[in-house]
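4.2 Preliminary Data

To establish feasibility before requesting continued support, the project team ran the inverse folding procedure on a target of 349 residues. The structure was first converted into the token representation described in Section 3, and no sequence information of any kind was made available to the design step. The complete token record follows.
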């Protein structure tokens, strides 16, 4: 594994009795299927917590529901069931309350080229959120300058009149981050924050997110398909498959000792993982309008395909018995019959 960037002081965040700053409790989000056929269960019973000063990576393939979950946590999508909690209080979806919430929980979008208006200067782009939430203020210029400076664009005044096309990809992403920082949020939700950037710039943006956590006490949910990014930035990792979190734990637990076959498959393709031969998963993730019975991963599971589950006497359970949703923290780490069998066997030794 590569050397991790984050410092480990924030790992003590889980020791406090304070409620998590942001949480999903039994969250479900469903949409009508294509052409009105069935119901797509994009988020299907998720418990997830982000503690104060903690960075949580939400990892999974495209289409697994992680971006929908992030949008629900931001209040952009209303859940079908369950609740979003902020500092222990349920999210209020009424106009003024929701506006106050979005002041405190900010989105950092995936593609800075798409999220920045090409006709707006950097100053206008960063000031936009402030104007929406607080209106005209005599401190606008100072706060724009401060946000740009915190995002690593210094001296900030040099960027005020520049347009997105005049900036590098990394600079554009820093402008997007500055637009979130200007409201002094407590949490940022970063959706694939470095996916569109060159490898040479990715480390700089990840370092910036870590520095913001350390300097400002920010919490962050980082949505990514890249387990390597999770290793470098996260305190905890939640692995998502077909609408549900299937493994959760500290980054060391999940990436050094993965319990779920899906996590092991994702990890096996990382060149730095030293995890043996890459695991090639058969087929594509199932349609969320037709979630399989039993374990939702069973049709692609290498443990079942290899005959190991049959030899251990759990193959029928894998095909017919739902392992259920994972708790947000503590207790079970993986929603997997095979992992539970081995955990129980280890506990009995």
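Position-by-position output of the design step:
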């Amino acid at each position: 594994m590569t050397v991790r960037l984050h410092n480990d002081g924030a790992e003590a965040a889980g020791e406090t009795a304070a409620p998590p700053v942001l949480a999903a409790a039994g969250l479900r989000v469903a949409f009508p299927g294509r052409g009105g056929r069935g119901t797509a269960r994009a988020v299907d019973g998720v418990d997830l917590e982000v503690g104060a000063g903690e960075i949580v990576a939400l990892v999974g393939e495209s289409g697994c529901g992680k971006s929908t979950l992030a949008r629900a946590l931001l209040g952009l999508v209303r859940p079908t069931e369950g609740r979003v909690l902020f500092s222990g209080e349920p999210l209020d979806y009424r106009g003024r309350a929701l506006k106050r919430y979005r002041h405190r929980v900010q989105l950092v979008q995936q593609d800075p080229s798409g999220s920045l208006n090409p006709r707006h200067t950097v100053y206008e782009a960063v000031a936009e959120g402030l104007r929406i939430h607080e209106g005209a203020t005599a401190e606008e210029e100072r706060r724009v300058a401060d946000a740009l400076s915190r995002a690593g664009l210094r001296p900030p005044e040099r960027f005020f009149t520049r347009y997105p096309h005049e900036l590098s990809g990394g600079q554009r992403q820093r402008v997007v981050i500055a637009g979130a920082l200007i409201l002094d949020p407590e949490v940022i939700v970063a959706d694939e924050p470095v996916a569109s950037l060159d490898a040479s710039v990715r480390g700089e943006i990840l370092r910036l997110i870590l520095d913001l956590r350390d300097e400002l006490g920010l919490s962050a949910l980082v949505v990514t398909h890249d387990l390597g990014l999770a290793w470098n930035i996260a305190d905890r990792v939640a692995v998502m498959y077909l609408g549900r979190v299937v493994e959760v734990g500290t980054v060391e637990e999940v990436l050094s000792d993965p319990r779920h076959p899906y996590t092991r498959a994702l990890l096996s393709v990382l060149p730095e993982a030293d995890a043996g031969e890459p695991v090639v998963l058969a087929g594509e993730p199932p349609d969320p309008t037709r979630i399989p019975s039993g374990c939702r991963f069973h049709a692609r599971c290498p443990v079942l395909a290899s005959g190991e589950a049959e030899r251990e006497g759990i193959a029928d359970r894998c095909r017919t018995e739902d392992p259920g949703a994972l708790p947000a923290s503590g207790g079970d780490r993986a929603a997997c019959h095979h992992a539970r069998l081995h955990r129980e066997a280890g506990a009995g030794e």
